[in-house]
């Protein structure tokens, strides 16, 4: 089996050249700094020794030592990265051998031979949806060949075919195989060196503190050294940005190059399918974990999370009309974009990976065809797979401390429980998600007798308009964030069209107008829904009840909007409690918070008092809120926070945030459920 050689693209070569030049300039500057520090150390050492020799006393020794320490500390600072080590935490990693897993090792043999790299030093299984090649690194690893380790996530193998897993692993090994890729490791390490000098200074800081604490004269020398080091760091900050920016550009090109290698090994389609499914698989995996996290108090566990991951993945696919073939969702680029709900593409100069669109389009352009012969799940490569799946699951639950005996949840129970949760936490499914983020419209007196055609409601055109409005909302928010940033990109892409920097504000205006027009259309549709429902309720003798329920919901919606704004105001006002803040400023901030606290108490009291909302409250939450309402708290007495008072405040805020949403959600869900009686025809 021949080794695949993929020549680098022109953009890869350009990025590698720019990265290499930035590294070369940094090396020259670093060497100059190093020799200057060496010269400074030599001069100061001679001066310090001379002072000590003038007259031997405790003062001359201390003064000489303080002067000598200036140069030595600067020199230590400049070479400390040599002793830095990067060690991978192997908690949750299970090492496997060729004897344990011959089929999986045979697949890896095939990949490393085709890619042209060495077999991993060790192979590990983990629980998650991931695959990576890693190694423990230090300064010498920049020059010495180091064997890499391979990590494969069971969650990944549970959602890939064997051919797709082969493509993913070939991509990972591709980063270390071709000569053209080796420049990436040098750029990465140069970047790490500067990062170490700028940010990883804990142990060096401890050394300085210990030395400075010996005597005040020595501390003067330490202070001078710190000023010199700060000056050096300012120089390094420039190079950190330069190298980091060039490294990130190169990193994106390296991803394209590794994708091309993987496509030659397993085919463009295998890698594209795997990439498009990974996000869905990861979402399903964490949906399962989040379920058990929510039920820690019930001590619920399972012996195998992976069938549950598969069920969630298929459930999400069905909800988004993603076809399933041989147990696996077939996510297309169109479906991926639809789920993301955006037409905006901004080239992020700080991104280490290209966007999913870019990667998949690149693979389709390569169009390397390889026969997909191993369509079985990758999990079937494992010997005794059930034992391994249960072992990885047990490792996950071993991280949790339970207060009582655990309860084993079967696959069937998990499915039932999750479906029950979904039903409880969603509006009537008959609306097909229309009212998830839209609301019933108030009933206008002038429209009560309007003629409404039932078949015009909830049509495909209305749902398409709803989707367009959702995308517009998302993209307008993204563009607002973009225009608020200090550095705008030279161009962006919107709806597959290039938009120059100077035209971004015009695009934003056009999208805002389209949003206003589309929102008006949806509101008119919602008015028709309310009118038709009212007319049919009236025909059944329930018109007055319907109108009253709709008015109450409209009031609750306005209250929800006010409460949401209040929650945002509260969190902004209390941001200072999460950062180091001068005492005087803390006192002033809490004085400014007094009127906001009064607003919170008033809004919370209202939620507690309205009769129809009483059933939504849990007694524990009610008691916590009452403690807050009944108390008068001083949250800060110089120089300390009152931790107990702050806990009462933040608990009340969290409960208020939860309950104001629950009140609106439950009232809206109840109304929508009752309204269904009058909308069976248009919804069908």
pLDDT average, as an integer? 89
Largest sheet: 4 strands, mixed
Globular, elongated, flat, extended or rod-shaped: what is the shape?
globular
Task: Tell me the radius of gyration.
Answer: 32 Å
Helix content: 55-70%
Work out the number of β strands: 13
Quickly give the structural class: mainly alpha
Keywords: Cell membrane, Hydrolase, Membrane, Metal-binding, Metalloprotease, Protease, Transmembrane, Transmembrane helix, Zinc
Organism: Flectobacillus roseus
Cofactor: Zn(2+)
InterPro entries: HtpX_protease, Peptidase_M48
Describe the structure.
The chain crosses the membrane at residues 21-52, 58-79, 220-240. It comes from Flectobacillus roseus. InterPro entries: HtpX_protease, Peptidase_M48. This is M48 family metallopeptidase. Keywords: Cell membrane, Hydrolase, Membrane, Metal-binding, Metalloprotease, Protease, Transmembrane, Transmembrane helix, Zinc. By secondary structure, the chain is mainly alpha-helical. 63% of the residues lie in helices and 6% in strands. The chain has 21 helices and 13 strands. It has a four-stranded mixed sheet. Strands 8-10-11 form a three-stranded antiparallel sheet, with no helix packed on it. It has a two-stranded parallel sheet with strand order 5-9. β6 (324-325) and β7 form a beta hairpin. α1 (10-54) packs antiparallel against α2 (58-79) and α1 packs parallel to α6 (182-199). The chain starts with 9 loop residues before the first helix and ends with a helix. The mean pLDDT is 89.
């Amino acid at each position: 089996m021949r080794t695949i050689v993929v020549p680098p693209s022109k953009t890869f070569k350009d990025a590698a050249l720019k990265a290499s030049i930035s590294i070369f300039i940094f090396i020259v500057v670093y060497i100059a700094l190093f020799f200057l520090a060496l010269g400074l150390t030599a001069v100061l050492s001679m001066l310090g020794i001379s002072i000590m020799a003038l007259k031997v006393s405790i003062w001359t020794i201390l003064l000489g030592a303080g002067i000598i320490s200036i140069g030595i500390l600067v020199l230590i600072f400049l070479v400390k990265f040599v002793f830095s080590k990067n060690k991978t935490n192997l908690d949750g990693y299970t090492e496997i051998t060729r004897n344990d897993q011959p089929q999986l090792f045979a697949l890896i043999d095939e990949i490393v031979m085709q890619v042209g790299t060495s077999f991993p030093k060790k192979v590990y299984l983990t629980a998650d949806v991931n695959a990576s090649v890693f190694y423990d690194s230090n300064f010498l690893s920049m020059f010495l060949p180091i064997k890499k380790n391979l990590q494969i996530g069971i969650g990944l193998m549970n959602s890939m075919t064997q051919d797709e897993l082969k493509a993913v692993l070939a991509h990972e090994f591709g980063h270390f195989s071709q000569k053209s890729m080796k420049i990436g490791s040098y750029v990465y390490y140069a970047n790490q060196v500067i990062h170490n000098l700028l940010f990883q200074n804990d142990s060096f800081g401890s050394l300085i503190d210990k030395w400075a604490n010996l005597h005040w004269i020595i501390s003067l020398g330490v202070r001078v050294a710190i000023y010199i080091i700060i000056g050096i760091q300012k120089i390094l900050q420039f190079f950190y940005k330069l190298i980091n920016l060039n490294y990130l550009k190169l990193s994106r090109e390296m991803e394209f190059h590794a994708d091309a290698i993987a496509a030659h090994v397993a085919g463009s389609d295998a890698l594209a399918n795997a990439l498009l499914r990974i996000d869905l698989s990861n979402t399903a995996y964490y949906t399962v974990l989040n379920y058990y996290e929510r039920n820690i108090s019930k001590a619920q566990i399972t012996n195998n999370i992976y069938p549950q991951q598969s069920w969630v993945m298929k459930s999400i696919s069905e909800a988004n009309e993603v076809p399933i073939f041989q147990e696996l969702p077939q996510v297309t680029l169109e479906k991926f974009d639809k789920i993301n709900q955006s037409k905006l593409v901004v080239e992020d100069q700080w991104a280490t990976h290209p966007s999913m669109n870019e990667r998949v389009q690149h693979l389709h352009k390569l169009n390397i065809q390889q026969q997909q012969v191993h369509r079985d799940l990758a999990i079937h490569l494992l010997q005794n797979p059930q034992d391994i799946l249960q072992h990885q699951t047990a490792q996950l639950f071993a991280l949790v401390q339970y207060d009582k005996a655990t309860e084993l949840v079967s696959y069937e129970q998990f499915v039932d429980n999750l479906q029950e949760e979904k039903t409880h936490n969603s509006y009537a499914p008959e609306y097909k998600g229309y009212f998830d983020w839209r609301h019933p419209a108030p009933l206008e007196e002038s429209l009560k007798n309007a003629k409404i055609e039932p078949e015009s409601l909830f049509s495909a055109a209305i749902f398409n308009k709803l989707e367009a409005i959702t995308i517009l909302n998302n993209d307008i928010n993204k563009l607002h964030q973009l225009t608020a940033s200090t550095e705008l990109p030279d161009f962006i892409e919107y709806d597959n069209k290039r938009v120059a920097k100077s035209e971004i504000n015009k695009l934003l205006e056009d999208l805002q107008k389209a949003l206003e027009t589309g929102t008006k259309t949806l509101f008119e549709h919602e008015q028709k829904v309310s009118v038709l429902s009212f007319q049919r309720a009236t025909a059944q003798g329930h018109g007055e009840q319907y109108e009253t329920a709709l008015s109450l919901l409209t009031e609750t919606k306005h209250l929800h909007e006010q409460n949401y704004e209040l929650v945002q105001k509260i969190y902004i006002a209390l941001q200072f409690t999460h950062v180091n803040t001068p005492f005087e400023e803390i006192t002033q901030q809490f004085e400014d918070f007094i009127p906001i606290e009064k607003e919170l108490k008033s809004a919370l009291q209202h939620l507690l008092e309205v009769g129809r909302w009483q059933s939504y409250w849990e007694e524990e939450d009610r008691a916590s809120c009452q403690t807050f309402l009944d108390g008068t708290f001083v949250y800060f007495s110089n120089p300390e926070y009152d931790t107990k008072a702050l806990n009462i405040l933040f608990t009340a805020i969290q409960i208020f945030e939860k309950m104001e949403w629950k009140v609106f959600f439950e009232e809206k869900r109840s109304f929508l459920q009752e309204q269904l009686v009058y909308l069976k025809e248009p919804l069908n």
